[in-house]
Specification:
The protein has 131 residues and is mainly alpha-helical. The protein is built from three helices and two strands. The chain folds into two domains: 64 residues, no CATH class; 38 residues. The longest helix is centred in the C-terminal third of the chain and has 36 residues.
């Protein structure tokens, strides 16, 4: 098993390497880079952060944000809220009308007046004074 020493690992990240791009036909050196593992890691990290930042800026500050599902203009959001309120009030009025019709059906279908909601009152006869 390989011995993994923390100091050895950090030393390997600071070792420099040479990256050479050569012309395949003439074997001329086109460009050469001196890199270390740290510089490659930092370069990839910075490019990733820049790419994410540019993507977020592109979406946030351009009209591309309107193509994201669920995001709309302020006018469309207020219109949606008004439609939700109107729908709720219509559902509530339909519910009240259904309750009224159910009660009316009960009254009309049952012929027994004892079960009705309104019963005739039997008031005692009052004596009329002849004064």
């Amino acid at each position: 098993m390989a011995n993994l020493d923390i100091n050895n690992t950090f030393k390997r990240t600071s070792n420099t390497y040479r990256l050479v791009v050569m012309n395949d036909d003439t074997y001329d050196e086109v460009i050469a880079f001196r890199l270390s593992r740290n510089s490659v890691y930092i370069g990839f990290s910075i490019s990733f952060i820049l790419l994410v930042g540019l993507t977020i800026a592109l979406i946030a500050f351009t009209p591309l944000k309107y193509y994201i599902p669920g995001y709309g203009t302020k006018e469309s959001r207020t219109t949606l809220q008004l439609l939700k309120i109107r729908t709720d009030s219509l559902e509530q009025s339909i519910h009240y009308k259904e309750q009224y019709l159910e009660g009316l059906k009960k009254v009309l279908s049952e012929g027994n007046p004892q079960q009705l909601d309104t019963l005739p009152l039997q008031l005692p006869e009052s004596k009329q004074s002849t004064d």
